Amino acid sequence: MIPDFDYQVIDLTIYEDYQIKGMVYLRVAALIMKYYFREDLNHKLPEILSLLSDLIQQKTTIDFLEVVLEYIVTNKNIDEESMVDNIEKAFHKKGDDFMISLTEKWMNKGKKSGKVEILYYLFEERFGKVPQKMKKQITQVDDKRLEDLTRSFLSFKSINDYYLWWDKH
Asked: Contact, 95 vs 50, CB < 8 A?
């Protein structure tokens, strides 16, 4: 038996925002997809994200919002500063402490991701292809250990020095 699936491609740009209905998560996702390639994404983000404001204390909403933020920052027209401004506008007066911690967590995650990528690049430039096991280990370390590894990298003469370092730490 071979599955035979049909799929629908829907051009969301032909619909007005009020015509996009359904569960809040679905509406947010659809509206972000609608505006993602448009110049006015940055302008529309506070309005779109504010749809989540009544649900912001729920764990599923927090997880969803983290995924949405990860997706949005892949847009070259959105930088960290404008993203933080949009989050503040969207959730103004709704869980301010929560939003500050989410924003900090999100920004720190981006910084760590950047540090990890730079470290991969350094290893590849110096020793060639980075083994998958090593990439997985580096991705999972905490910030302190990542900092220690980056400093120690300067003294590594071979990829084996990394494994010796890993065993000690």
From this structure: no
Name residue 13's amino acid: T
| 149 close to 138: Cβ distance less than 8 angstroms | yes
What would the pLDDT profile of 66-104 be if each residue is shown by its tens digit? Answer: 788 878 877 777 877 787 788 878 877 665 555 555 656
The whole-angstrom separation of Cα 98 and Cα 1 is 50
| Dist CA 166 CA 160 (whole Å) | 10
Q: How many CB atoms lie within 10 A of CB 113?
A: 12
pTM recorded for the entire structure: 0.57
Distance CA 163, CA 160 (A): 5
- The CA radius of gyration of the chain, in Å to the nearest whole number, is 21
Handedness of CA 14, 19, 22, 27 (dihedral sign): positive
